[in-house]
């Protein structure tokens, strides 16, 4: 059986919401870097803004795109760079499942600390400063660290059907439904990894 082409995705932006007129204008934030993990090749990749044309066929042929808040954030930021409808690709948004389980949102840090025993290596605001200061090395490391954390959280949820999170000083658990995607027939031959 061939490995499903599941892609874990996270991106960083060039601008903050305050610079583009507030939330709801995600498409104006612009991508600084986008990191992915590809289950079918067991490899991590990172793309700068001018390399996103190489990312497009990878996402277009994915069986599933996995991320944290990808529907409301990452997909909207990426949309202007893509020549296809990214919302047509099957996705698993961990934050959406958390919201279904708890009735509200919590941040990735809270889940990572409780589930993995480790947190994020920085913040989105720091990532924007890295970009503005042309520290692409630090920016790429931070983005790929987030991809790794997101992948580990997804793998944990897939295996254990739950995630842990910090609620003030207590660690609690929430049920998370994760089902494997179906292979998307006819899309894999269209694009191979570079």
Describe the structure in your own words.
The protein is built from seven helices and seven strands, in the order βαββαβαβααααββ. With 194 residues, the protein is an alpha/beta fold. A five-stranded mixed sheet has the order 3-2-1-4-5, sandwiched between helices. It has a two-stranded antiparallel ribbon with strand order 6-7. Strand 2 and strand 3 form a beta hairpin. The C terminus is likely disordered.
Question: Gist?
Answer:
With 194 residues, the protein is of the alpha/beta class. It has seven helices and seven strands, in the order βαββαβαβααααββ. The strands form two sheets. A five-stranded mixed sheet has the order 3-2-1-4-5, with helices on both faces. Strands 6-7 form a two-stranded antiparallel sheet.
Record keyword descriptors for this entry:
194 residues; alpha/beta; five-stranded mixed sheet; two-stranded antiparallel ribbon; 7 helices; 38% helix; 21% strand; disordered C terminus
| Amount of helix | 25-40%
For the largest beta sheet, what order do the strands appear in spatially? Answer: 3-2-1-4-5
End-to-end span in angstroms?
23 Å
Number of helices: 7
Number of strands: 7
What class would the helix/strand composition place it in? alpha/beta
Instruction: Categorize the overall geometry.
Output: globular
Order of helices and strands: EHEEHEHEHHHHEE
State the major sheet.
Answer: 5 strands, mixed
Radius of gyration: 16 Å
List the helices and strands and how they pair.
Blueprint: E1 6-13, H1 17-20, E2 31-38, E3 43-48, H2 52-60, E4 64-67, H3 70-78, E5 91-93, H4 94-102, H5 108-116, H6 124-132, H7 136-160, E6 162-167, E7 170-175
Parallel strand pairs: 1-4, 4-5
Antiparallel strand pairs: 1-2, 2-3, 6-7
Helix pairs in contact: 5-7, 6-7
